[in-house]
Amino acid sequence: MRGLDKRYMILLVILILISPLFGVYLSDLVGYHEPLDLAAEHIGLPDLNEELNWTPLYDYGFPALHPVLGYIVSGFIGVALILGIGMLLTRIVSKSECVLENEAKE
Amino acid sequence: MHIPDGFLDPWMVLTTFLVVGGYTIISYRRMGRLSMDRVSLLSSFSAGIFVAQMLNWPLPGGTSLHLVGGGLAGILLGPYLGFFAMSLVIIIQCIVFHDGGITALGANILNMAILGVVTGYLAYKIAISILGKNNKGRFIGGFLAGWLGIVVAGLACGIEIGLSTYFGFNLDVTIPIMVSWHAILGVIEGLITAFIVEYIHTRNPGISYLEV
């Protein structure tokens, strides 16, 4: 993919690999919950998140994987999806650029 | 910052989706023709923001520190492409990882991808026009873009949940709490934004929408 710096990609991989330190380990250590979830619990609002779940990757986990590994796999899946959509867009843009060039020649 | 399902009244859900729909049309029309480089920048920026948001540093007391990235998107990609980049992250987070509710997707995009981005864009532009394109202007502009972007997004979040009867607290509670917390946490967002702007200025200033 044009313009994607190799060093930037290496940085993203490193950050994904260390991300469970924050998102899993430190979260468990301080008993972290989303502030809005805590407020909802305080006023007795029903927690719809798990009842209305539509994805096996709920909360950046992966089925049957340890939360640390699940968090890392989720990171790679998220980045792959975003870059995949980017590549798809690049193809569309490159096709439309070809069409414009051909029209200009004619 | 990501509002879950069950917090917003149906009218608020509808209103936020309509606003996002309207801004999507405006952005599509105004962003100009997409080049390969701009698409590439959009996807690599979105991937970076997605990863940065996974690095959330939990704080005792029930909150966490992480980069949201709206202000940075406004500076580097502008108010239209920046909106698409942030929206892509929020949509993937919601649909694939259930981070933020599906009924709150409109509100979450409005707060972080529209208000956060546009505020950051304007804050940087105004700061640079007053202070000039120098180290001071870039640092203060970058800081204000990050800080104000997250504070305005937090304020909007407070208004949306405060106006919704499903959420038991009114505006007099939700706005002060959301604004004060984000004003404190936003200092880190502002500093990170300022440092990234400075880094891009020294390495590759040509990639940025606003001159850095």
Search tags:
heterodimer; A: 106 residues; mainly alpha; 3 helices; 68% helix; 0% strand; B: 212 residues; Arp2/3 complex 21 kDa subunit ARPC3; 2 strands; 74% helix; 3% strand; globular
Question: How would you describe this protein?
Answer:
The complex is a heterodimer of chains A (106) and B (212). Chain A is 68% helix and 0% strand. By secondary structure, chain A is mainly alpha-helical. In chain B, 74% of the residues lie in helices and 3% in strands. Chain B contains 6 helices and 2 strands, in the order ααββαααα. In chain B, α1 packs across α4, α3 runs antiparallel to α4 (105-131) and α4 (105-131) packs antiparallel against α5 (135-163). Classes of the chains: A mainly alpha (106), B mainly alpha (212). Chains A and B meet through α1, α2 and α3 of A and α2, β1 and α3 of B.
Topology:
The complex is a heterodimer of chains A (106) and B (212).
Chain A: H1 6-30, H2 35-42, H3 67-105
Chain B: H1 10-30, H2 36-54, E1 57-59, E2 63-65, H3 70-97, H4 105-131, H5 135-163, H6 171-203
Antiparallel strand pairs in B: 1-2
